[in-house]
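Journal club side-thread
Mid-discussion, someone asked how the predicted structure for our own chain would compare to the paper's figures. Pasting it here so we can look after the session.
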Amino acid sequence: MAGLIRRSDIDEVRSRINIADVVGDYVTLKSAGVGSLKGLCPFHDERSPSFHVRQQVGRYHCFGCGEDGDVFTFLQRMDHVTFSEAVERMAARAGIELHYEDGGAAAPDRGNRARLLAANQAAADFFVAQLSTPAAEPGRTFLGTRGFDAAAAAQFGIGFAPKSYDALSSHLKTLGFTEEEMLAAGLIGEGDRGTYDRFRGRLVWPIRDTTGQTLGFGARKLLDDDQGPKYLNTPETPVYRKSQVLYGLDLARRDISRTKRVVVVEGYTDVMACHLAGITTAVATCGTAFGVDHIKVIRRVLGDVDNSDSHGLGEVIFTFDPDEAGQKAASRAFGEEQRFAAQTYVAVAPDGLDPCDLRLAKGDDALRRLVGERKPMFEFMIRRVLAAFDLETVEGRVGALRAAAPVVAGIRDPALHTGYIRNLAGWVGVDPKEVVGAVASASRAKPSQQPTGRPDRGDSRWSDDPQDASGEGGEGPTVKPGPSITELPTDPVTRLERDALMAVLQYPDAVGPELGQRIGGVAFTNTTLAVVRDGIAASMDAFTRPNWADRVAEEVPSGFSTIVSQLVVAPIPDKAGRELSIYCRGVVASLIGRDLLAKKAELLGRLQRTDSSAEPDRYRELQRELMGIEAERRALIGD
């Protein structure tokens, strides 16, 4: 069938791509044991990491929502691409030339996302080139008045859209892009008189994802005769979803992950000012209010984990304009505060300047001090509430306490909760017992706003792409019901069986085909793990091949594929630094040795029950079997 990628090429791409590098573009990963990495799941909202990645086997699995797959599945789910598009993208990344069945090429209906991204990048290059033209003088002047030189413009990829209805579209047509592709990318619009360039006579900022791909644009009005809004953004497209994108995240991602701090500002120039002042963790929303989807993105990059070891280590700092719009933004951010495990702060310049204006007026140091002197979000909100009351009167103090009590009631950290009760008592000038009572009343009157953490299942993880090399295509449920390793007994025998299977599935090269073959004849006490053992025995022809784990998952009954995936990504219970091959062979040999001891004990019992004089041949046969098992056991120990 023309257009299908050869399976050998797919396997080659899969083997050459480090899945941790690809996942790491979206999720901050940390070590979770030998050969295992973990982070916050990008497919559902969670406060503690349950998303595991195994580089050795090229797979991921979330123990929270059940999502699992390889690098291609990950890209399908994250970027809503087809299987073939995912393979083609990774092939380009690895420098591998793909071949198609019967000498064909990619099907013409494939690569839509790639084409839209390519169109956006071509547009970005066009806009950058236009910034140096005489017609772009208003744009260069604007940048200069905001404190940005040519180097800053180049750093952020800023360009200029000519004041023309077809300059961009005509240029893109010469590069082979169609009107349909430009419309789908949001680069042109369509009216009664035909199509027209969406951005005209404006300064243009490219909006990129964490991997640096241009998804869309934000454009600022420069000319007096421009009747459009001050800022015009790319509309929603197959590649640009403004509620899930943060401007500057491509530049800030690594420093956010490293420093555990993110600064959320309100505009493109604010992001630029912060980065140029050394605050390289600044990001901004793109033409929409800060919301839940933005929080999910930040938490994944921040590694915002909610547990006793790391709670409070991360920082999310919001900067708000002092005007009414800024105050509304502060209220919205506070409403979502408890979705973060990290501590949240607010930084507002005392003279009411936004970060860009503050840098212009007082320099980089003033901007760094603004962030350094941030106020805790709860303190900011409580003081904002109190500012509306006259605390010199009894009525004012009572009203202030009633208004501020719900804020304190919403603090879930016990230590902070107690501390703010004391602070509120001091700020209002009342006895702490009165605050305790008011907060208790507010807690009873207001339902919990804490997020449930339930997975957002969204769309299916499978595409309808006909390409199917190893189970990646076709329709199916996102999570297949079945047994889980979290439900296994914790007795030593079951743990040994589990660990041996993990070694065979994750490190077949270290275990070796001989031990891998022998494990198929071992008697298992746990019936669930015995099914996986049978799947391994039935897949030995693929042992050590790139699709080894996939083959085992295909061989077991459908309800057991999840536990295979879990065994493939679960951390190996061995100390880092020990030679991995020694551990893997050792744990498998221990399981086989245990089975041999059980067989030896059974044979000894049968030998004792056999009358040597009445059944001499049977007796000698049992003795030979015993000697054979003992020799096998000693050879295994010596191995």
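Post-session note: Residues 308-312, 448-480 have pLDDT under 50 and may be disordered.
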